[in-house]
UniProtKB/TrEMBL annotation:
CDD domains: C2C_MCTP_PRT
Acidic residues biased stretches: 325-337
Cellular component terms per the entry's GO annotation: synaptic vesicle membrane
Superkingdom to which the source organism belongs: Eukaryota
Family note: Belongs to the MCTP family.
Entry protein name: Multiple C2 and transmembrane domain-containing protein 2 isoform X5
Gene symbol of the encoding locus: MCTP2
UniProt biased composition (Basic and acidic residues): 338-348
SUPFAM superfamilies: C2 domain (Calcium/lipid-binding domain, CaLB)
Disulfide bond found in the keyword field: no
Xref: SMART domains: C2 (SM00239)
Species whose genome carries this gene: Balaenoptera acutorostrata (Common minke whale)
Length: 476
C-alpha cells in the first residue's frame, strides 16, 4: 500500500524503445473493492493515461523452507480448504485456488562453466507471478528444498519451472525447463520431471524433483473459463523461424485436408459412388429433416463428446506422437541446414549479407503470416482437442453447457432466447460502464491446448532423452 510508479514506453518494429512519460498513483488513498477510473497526466510529455484501478485483497505469493510448509499444518490446510469449498463459490470470484510447490532438487544438470560445474538456481512462473530460489554454487546436483505458494487466478494456467546458471553480471545461462498444466498436477506426490529445451519440444539434460499441492474451487474455475485470459506481461515475442513457419504451414495443411476430405465424402454420397453409403445417407437425411428440432443441434454435439469419451484413446496418443515426430523432423532438417552452411564456409559471405538484408526488409510481413497461420492452426486444433477430451475438465464443462442448451431449446422458444441475449448485450455497458467486451466461446477455446502445446506439456519419462526418429537413425 504505497506509491505505484508507472512508465509509458514506445517500441517500433526495430525493437528501439523510448520512454514517453511517467506518472504516479497513491494506492493507499484508494478505496478497497471499488473500481476507480483515474485520469493521470504524464510527466515530461503531453498526454494523459486513463486507468481503471481496483484494489482486491487476495492471497499473495510466498517463499519458505520445507520446515515451514503452509499446507503441512492440518489446521491451516483445513482453513484453506474451507475457503475454497463449494459453499463459498460465489465469494471473491477472482480467488480461484492456491498452489503450493516444493522445489526439492535437480540431478545431472548441464555443466555451464569451464570448471565442469554450474551455479544453478530455479525460476518458477505462474501467469504473471515469478519467484526464484537461491543459487547453489559449483554443483550439478543442487538441493534447494524451498516451498513456493501461488494464488490461482485461472485453473488453466501452466506452471513453468526453468533452471538457470548464474553468470555474474551476464545474463544467466539456460539449463532446462518444464511446463506443468495445473489440472495435470498429482497432489502430494514427489514427481521427477525431465528437463526440456527452450521450446519444450525435446529433452535437455538433467531432471528436477517437485512436489505440488493444489486446492481450488471448481465452480469459480468454471466461471473463470468463460472470461478473457490474463495476458503474459513478460513474454518473449515470437521470432521469425523457418522451422516454425514450416510447421505452421503443415498444421494448416492438415486441417485443410480434413475439411476437404469431409466435403469429398459428402459429394460421394450425392454421386452414388457407393450404393449402400448413399442409401444410408439418404434415409438419415429424410428422417433428420422430417423430425428436426433446434434442440437436436446441441444434443448431436453432446453425442459426439460421448462417442469420443468411450472410444479407445489410441488416436490421442497417436496425434501427440505425430506432432512430436514432425517436430523432430523439423529439428533434423534445421541441423542439416546448419551443417550444410558450415561446409560452405565463407564462400558466399557477401551473398549471405545481401540475403539477410532482404529478409530483414520483409521480416514484418513474413512474421505476420507466421502468426496468422499459427492462429488458424491453433483454432482448428483446439476445436478438435475439445471433442477429443484432451483436457477432461474442459470437455466435461462443454458437455454440461450443451446439456443445458438442449433442455433450454426444448422448452423455451428460440425468439425468447434471442431476445434475452440481445437485451443482455445492449444493456451490458449500461450496467457496467467499465466492462470489457469478450466472446465467451473464444475465451473457452483459448484454454484448450493446441497440438503443439500438447507436445510441450507432455511429461517425458526419465531416459527418453532421444526422440524416436533419432533412435532409428542412430540404430542405422
Amino acid at each position: 500500500m504505497g506509491i505505484l510508479d508507472i512508465e509509458v514506453w514506445g517500441k517500433d518494429s526495430k525493437k528501439h524503445e523510448e520512454r514517453l512519460g511517467t506518472c504516479k498513483v497513491d494506492i493507499s488513498a484508494l478505496p478497497l473493492k471499488q473500481a476507480n477510473c483515474l485520469e493521470l497526466p504524464l510527466e515530461s510529455c503531453l498526454g494523459t493515461l486513463r486507468m481503471l484501478v481496483t484494489l482486491t485483497p487476495c492471497a499473495g505469493v510466498s517463499i519458505s523452507d520445507l520446515c515451514v510448509c503452509p499446507l503441512a499444518d492440518p489446521s491451516e490446510r483445513k482453513q484453506i480448504a474451507q475457503r475454497f469449498c463449494l459453499q463459498n463459490s460465489l465469494k471473491n470470484m477472482k480467488d480461484v485456488g492456491i498452489l503450493q510447490v516444493k522445489v526439492l532438487k535437480a540431478v545431472d544438470l548441464l555443466a555451464a562453466d569451464f570448471s565442469g560445474k554450474s551455479d544453478p538456481f530455479c525460476l518458477l512462473e505462474l501467469g504473471n507471478d515469478r519467484l526464484q530460489t537461491h543459487t547453489i554454487y559449483k554443483n550439478l546436483n543442487p538441493e534447494w528444498n524451498k516451498v513456493f505458494t501461488f494464488p490461482i487466478k485461472d485453473i488453466h494456467d501452466v506452471l513453468e519451472v526453468t533452471v538457470f546458471d548464474e553468470d555474474g553480471d551476464k545474463p544467466p545461462d539456460f539449463l532446462g525447463k518444464v511446463a506443468i498444466p495445473l489440472l495435470s498436477i498429482r497432489d502430494g506426490q514427489t514427481n521427477c520431471y525431465v528437463l526440456k529445451n527452450k521450446d519444450l519440444e525435446q529433452a535437455f539434460k538433467g531432471v528436477i524433483y517437485l512436489e505440488m499441492d493444489l486446492i481450488y474451487n471448481p465452480i469459480k474455475a468454471s466461471i473463470r473459463t468463460f472470461t478473457p485470459r490474463e495476458k503474459r506481461f513478460a513474454e518473449d515475442s515470437r521470432k521469425l523461424s523457418k522451422k516454425i513457419l514450416s510447421r505452421d504451414v503443415d498444421r494448416v495443411k492438415r486441417l485443410t485436408m480434413t475439411v476437404w476430405n469431409t466435403i469429398q465424402f459428402l459429394k460421394s454420397c450425392f454421386q452414388w459412388e457407393s450404393t449402400l453409403r448413399s442409401t444410408v445417407a439418404f434415409v438419415v437425411f429424410l428422417v433428420t429433416v422430417w423430425n428436426f428440432e433446434l434442440y437436436m443441434i446441441p444434443l448431436a454435439l453432446s453425442l459426439l463428446f460421448v462417442y469420443n469419451f468411450i472410444r479407445p484413446a489410441r488416436g490421442k496418443v497417436g496425434s501427440i506422437q505425430d506432432s512430436q515426430e514432425s517436430t523432430d523432423v523439423d529439428e533434423e532438417e534445421d541441423e542439416d541446414d546448419k551443417m550444410g552452411a558450415l561446409e560452405k564456409g565463407h564462400k558466399g559471405e557477401s551473398e549471405k549479407k545481401g540475403l539477410i538484408e532482404r529478409i530483414y526488409m520483409v521480416q514484418d510481413v513474413v512474421s505476420t503470416v507466421q502468426n496468422v497461420l499459427e492462429e488458424i492452426a491453433s483454432f482448428g486444433e483446439r476445436i478438435k482437442n475439445t471433442f477429443n477430451w484432451t483436457v477432461p475438465f474442459l470437455s466435461f464443462l462443454a458437455c454440461l453447457i450443451l446439456a443445458v442448451a438442449t433442455i433450454t431449446l426444448y422448452f423455451i422458444p428460440l425468439r425468447y432466447i434471442i431476445l434475452i441475449w440481445g437485451i443482455n448485450k445492449f444493456t451490458k455497458k449500461l450496467r457496467n460502464p467499465y466492462a470489457i467486451d469478450n466472446d465467451e466461446l473464444l475465451d473457452f477455446l483459448s484454454r484448450v491446448p493446441s497440438d503443439v502445446q500438447k507436445v510441450q506439456y507432455a511429461e517425458l519419462k526419465p531416459g527418453s532423452g532421444q526422440s524416436p526418429l533419432r533412435k532409428k537413425r542412430s540404430a542405422l
